[in-house]
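To: structure subgroup
Subject: Chain for Friday's discussion

All,

I'm putting the inputs and outputs inline so they're searchable in the archive.
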Amino acid sequence: MNNRGSVVLEAALVMPVFVMVIFFLIYMVQVTVFSSQLHTVASNSVKNVAAHMYPVAIAMKSKDSSGSTDSTSITSWQMPKLSLSEWSSKYTEQLPSPLSDWIKEGITNGEQPLQDMRNQMSEAVLDPWLKPLLHPLLVGTQLQEERVHVSRVIVPDMKTGKSPYFGLELNYKLPIRIPFTSQPIVIQSKALERLWIGDTQEQEGGIAGEGNISQAYEGAKVLSKPSPAYRGNKATISASAKPGSRVSLTVFYKSGKSTAKYLGQATADASGYVDWSWLVSGNTTLGTWSFILETEEGVTTTDHFEVNSKQQ
């Protein structure tokens, strides 16, 4: 009788732990599936954009070489003998939206598309632009479209060719929260693809080779930031970058992109040092806010700082 009681007691103690381990393993498998599918969606999305940007590059070269978007390309490949509007309509009619609209606009105007999304970090801004591109790729996956959000986009620089890369960063909010804290669990996936537009000489200057691409596009490094910033006081951010290069600072508050004076573009000195000082408005919402440093090659560095009430 005592032995039976011992077995029941041991089972009562061990069984809940065993069941929790089984559920945890099932959950980890499901998270792995979600992560793999999210990466596939991000990778295929950037490939779709990269693969169809060559006609835009041709139209931009045509415009730059003759001042008119109706001229032929200076490369060995030439535009068909149609007006650009006719040709762009034929080319883009089989492409999914919004990719077809971006390509058509770029070809017709001879200008690089997607520039309105540069330096944007708000999901409310990026989702309407880019989620239609993700929609057909989400079909057949276990991912729920309403849980997928675009948190960052890397826009290529097609005019100078220094940074011909298009990239996306996607977030997915899992349908489960951290026990006791109720904090949501979010997984991320990033994808970067070089535009299929031929050689743009971006590796000139002795930086050729795949192993050195990150060196060629090294972003600015944050040296100091407000810790914290105070309402009604000046705040300063300093960074290091390539000597003589231009670096742009963009600050985002709850209300959106800051329009404070002295933000924006600055030039690094001979030692690579650059800084910005601006006045934090007395009406700025308290909390933690983000800022972006962008080099002239289009490489971005993101960081955060805190805004507190007025300093005593």
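Points worth raising on Friday:
Confidence is low (pLDDT under 50) at residues 67-77, 205-216.
The longest helix spans residues 2-51.

D.
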